[in-house]
């Protein structure tokens, strides 16, 4: 199965498309001819993204304001698509949040929000839309995991665990849906220059120049290429691919030594 320029009215649903990587997925899917349904928790931000993409690509773009960490978020979104008779051919589960803190220290509401957004809602969206896609015999699901899926490190315990869950989930459902014409890909980036960790623009520019970070445009291009060529997973960036098998080999005492010494770990303490 491959996707080129589309002529029918298939829809791509992208969560968290008001900014960063999700916005780039939305633009690039519009460039491929998909109509879009884009969702975020910021009414003005998602409406602005929709207006810009509509103007640039001339496709139909519907912005939807939803808190995807809410209890029935996935079911609501699925029902909305049914009511609007949207033929969702591509589902991009991208919405995400980040915090850096110890599990025992952080406000429990932040933990709950991350678990609901990354795990509960994403899983149920895969369930509902995966079911329709398999009935139709065609579809694509892209789940945003992360290189941190292989990095059970202090400060990112919940984030890394949820991204590891998404990596595993994606691989399993890929094999459940493959013979029904549905492709599932986990995208596992290292650092991408977005607002996710509130890194200043100056440091982002430096990290981009040093090749430590990737632009969201480039990441989205690589993610979609992997999705439409039916790959199970992509870890964009050579250095990231080299680091992945090494991350789990770092001994606990070294991890704890870095934690004690690292300046970034002391911020906000
Ligand atoms: N940046 C990076 O280095 C990496 C990012 N990733 C993953 O990529 C994905 C996108 O992140 P990125 O683009 O960097 O970050 P951004 O902060 O730029 O984008 C996050 C998106 O998620 C949306 N979102 C957050 N909370 C909710 C919510 N409760 N309901 C609905 N939408 C929500 C935000 O919308 P709004 O604020 O408008 O609600 C925003 O559109 C995330 O899943 C992240 O974990 C993975 C690896 C590396
Ligand atoms: N930088 C990424 C981890 O490796 C992320 O934010 O997920």
From TrEMBL:
What are the alphabetically sorted keywords of the record?
Answer: Membrane, Oxidoreductase, Transmembrane, Transmembrane helix
Which SUPFAM superfamilies does the record associate with it? NAD(P)-binding Rossmann-fold domains
Give the residue spans that cross the bilayer.
140-161
Keyword hit for Phosphoprotein = no
Return the Pfam families for the record.
Answer: adh_short (PF00106)
- According to its UniProt record, the EC number is 1.1.1.298, 1.1.1.381
Query: Catalysed reaction per UniProt?
Result: 3-hydroxypropanoate + NADP(+) = 3-oxopropanoate + NADPH + H(+); L-allo-threonine + NADP(+) = aminoacetone + CO2 + NADPH
Q: What does this protein do?
A: NADP-dependent dehydrogenase with broad substrate specificity acting on 3-hydroxy acids. Catalyzes the NADP-dependent oxidation of L-allo-threonine to L-2-amino-3-keto-butyrate, which is spontaneously decarboxylated into aminoacetone. Also acts on D-threonine, L-serine, D-serine, D-3-hydroxyisobutyrate, L-3-hydroxyisobutyrate, D-glycerate and L-glycerate. Able to catalyze the reduction of the malonic semialdehyde to 3-hydroxypropionic acid.
Family per record: Belongs to the short-chain dehydrogenases/reductases (SDR) family.
Q: What is this protein called?
A: NADP-dependent 3-hydroxy acid dehydrogenase YdfG
- State the organism of origin: Alistipes ihumii AP11
Q: What is the lineage of its organism?
A: Bacteria, Pseudomonadati, Bacteroidota, Bacteroidia, Bacteroidales
